[in-house]
UniProtKB/TrEMBL annotation:
<keyword id="KW-0443">Lipid metabolism</keyword>
<feature type="domain" description="Thioesterase">
    <location>
        <begin position="123"/>
        <end position="193"/>
    </location>
</feature>
<keyword id="KW-0276">Fatty acid metabolism</keyword>
<keyword id="KW-0963">Cytoplasm</keyword>
<keyword id="KW-0809">Transit peptide</keyword>
<dbReference type="InterPro" id="IPR052365">
    <property type="entry name" value="THEM4/THEM5_acyl-CoA_thioest"/>
</dbReference>
<feature type="region of interest" description="Disordered">
    <location>
        <begin position="1"/>
        <end position="30"/>
    </location>
</feature>
<protein>
    <recommendedName>
        <fullName>Acyl-coenzyme A thioesterase THEM4</fullName>
        <ecNumber>3.1.2.2</ecNumber>
    </recommendedName>
</protein>
<dbReference type="InterPro" id="IPR006683">
    <property type="entry name" value="Thioestr_dom"/>
</dbReference>
<keyword id="KW-0053">Apoptosis</keyword>
<keyword id="KW-0472">Membrane</keyword>
<keyword id="KW-0378">Hydrolase</keyword>
<dbReference type="InterPro" id="IPR029069">
    <property type="entry name" value="HotDog_dom_sf"/>
</dbReference>
<keyword id="KW-1003">Cell membrane</keyword>
<keyword id="KW-0966">Cell projection</keyword>
<comment type="similarity">
    <text>Belongs to the THEM4/THEM5 thioesterase family.</text>
</comment>
<dbReference type="Pfam" id="PF03061">
    <property type="entry name" value="4HBT"/>
</dbReference>
Length: 208
């Protein structure tokens, strides 16, 4: 039984198909491909190429983009954002978290922000907010009785600088349910140090 199915035990209806996850789409090499995509994003943060090199790199990347566009599938069939065996479900636009625990108590994840997520000397606040929003999606997905829940608002308090390149621990849970409204809380720690905490409201909606 996958962690997603275990956590699903409290729902009165199945998870929407798009949220069930799989570990096969895109094949066994897909994780390494996404890791390389992340590495391109990281490396791009630390270069100041001359014009010639910039044009060469652009041409190289254009060829790769064309190859990917030639094998595009409808988004609901895509591997990215569906692979529950990969960091952040294989979605390169998300910070690469790994789920440590998922259940009706909420979700615990390990996250390593990287060069691509750098703001000024620490992780960019928007990336921290993105992490919380995604993890709140996990936490609420397993507490709504049907459909799923969308973010109505999400507030982050940045308590101390959030480092990149080291494992951090995030915890997000549903504190209270009031009809369709789910009140969600979350924390992000570097060891014992609180980096950020989060308050959000999610609203249960049909999966349509
Ligand atoms: C395992 C896979 C995990 C995948 C995770 C992915 C997670 C991604 C999560 C997201 O990022 S979702 C994308 C970002 N969110 C949106 O795009 C939502 C856009 N807004 C909407 O679609 C609607 O405004 C919304 C669904 C949030 C609410 O509209 P509704 O028409 O369904 O609800 P309504 O306006 O009737 O409000 C219902 C209740 O919520 C309250 N409410 C709604 N928005 C609020 C708000 N912003 N602040 C405070 N209260 C709010 C509202 O007052 C009311 O309270 P009462 O029932 O007590 O009267």
């Amino acid at each position: 039984m996958t962690s997603t199915q275990q956590a699903d035990a409290g729902r009165t209806s199945e998870l929407p198909k798009w949220a069930r996850g799989n570990s096969h789409r895109g094949g066994p090499g897909f994780g390494e491909l996404i890791e390389q995509v992340r590495s391109v994003m990281d490396a791009s943060r630390f270069i100041a190429p001359g014009d010639d090199v910039a044009r060469e790199l652009t041409a190289d990347l254009s060829r790769i983009v064309e190859r990917m566009q030639a094998i595009a599938v409808p988004v609901d069939d895509a591997a990215a954002d569906s692979r529950e065996d990969l960091p952040a479900r294989g979605n390169p636009s998300l910070p690469p978290f790994e789920i440590i625990d998922l259940g009706s108590e909420g979700v615990v994840a390990e996250i390593v922000f990287r060069a691509f997520h750098l703001g000024r000397l620490s992780a960019h606040g928007g990336n921290i907010s993105l992490l919380f929003d995604e993890l709140a999606g996990y936490a609420t997905m397993h507490r709504v009785t049907s459909g799923f829940a969308r973010t109505a608002f999400l507030k982050v308090d940045y308590r101390s600088l959030t480092p990149i390149d080291r494992p951090l621990r995030a915890r997000v849970w549903v504190e209270e349910i009031d009809g369709r409204k789910l009140h969600v809380l979350g924390t992000l720690h570097d060891g014992d140090r609180l980096c950020a905490d989060m308050t959000a409201l999610f609203i249960q909606v049909p999966d349509a």
